[in-house]
Amino acid sequence: MGSDLRPALRGQPLRDEGDGGGGVAGGIRPLDRREGAGRGAVSRATHPGAPRGLGLYASAVVAATLFLVFVGALVTTRDAGLAVPDWPLSFGSINPDGWWREELVRLEHSHRLVGATIGVLTTLLAVWVWRVNRGSRLRWLGPAAFVAVSVQGTLGGLRVTEISTTLAIVHGCFGQAFVCLLAAIAVVHTRAWREGSRIADPGRLRGLRVAAVGFFAVAYGQLVIGAVMRHHKAGLAIPDFPLAYGRLIPPLESFAIAIHFAHRVGAVVVLVAAIFLAARALRGFRANRPLVAGVVVLLVLLALQIALGALVIWLRRATIPTCLHVVNGALVLASGIFVALHAFAIRAQGPLLASAEGGPEGRSA
Known about the structure:
Elements (H helix, E strand, L loop, with lengths): L1 H4 L9 E2 L16 H6 L13 H26 L25 H30 L8 H21 L3 H24 L2 H5 L1 E3 L2 H30 L23 H30 L4 H26 L4 H27 E3 L2 H7 L8
């Protein structure tokens, strides 16, 4: 993943990983910044593929898209998805008169307006990414974002015209994947990711990468289970927490109870995967501040997600906790992407480097 995305930025200094600060770790000497400059290193501030504004703009688009996720969660929670029965227009108009007067129509039409805004912002982001990453595989993230936002908008429209629970689930899951794609674009256009770092132990690095990818996989699987539960209206199929009908394992006598319980079991699996990832990161990569910070944020968000899940049950699916549970789930996934990309930004000496990055100097675009 990250090694394929990472451009060949030869000549840039690489930080040395280890439990200590800036000394020699594992027998590898950190590259001196002046030495790198002497070999024709390209300044981070002037590198055409990494303008500061692009990373900031991508982060802003991520924030705006999280707001769209919140509005979409409101639509689902309030069951307003079919309040406007036609698409792509709304009651035969782009902006129908008096749409704000009735709550459900206001929610659904607002969702469409915000979605259209995200479409415009993403299109601008796609063009920017394509233009500044000439000669790098990173440029293909731009078209990918454009295609993704187009597909998501189409899924949202089909979800109205086809009246399909399956489409509603796919729309919700793909929306979270779209947030992750935008988060990836933001991460790979930051200085910290492009600088990278280096570690002497390929095995330890491989373990970190496996843990990061594994966490994201189980977290996204948990999202899918949650979407199925939510759109099948099984959020309160088990009305108590932390027990389930007063037991550890409830009687699985209906699909609603089974999918709800699977979501609870999934939460435990995600928590275990997060702890394993944190242990891997803190064991040998404490000097990598972005990686460690990402893991800490991930653990905090995961704790908040569990608390919000409990509130959803205790408050009988109250609107705000339910919607925040959805948005925070997207943040957990985005944090997982952040950690995974920084794990793949670390370079190793020896066989892992040769196999993962196409040689000692990395793959050329």
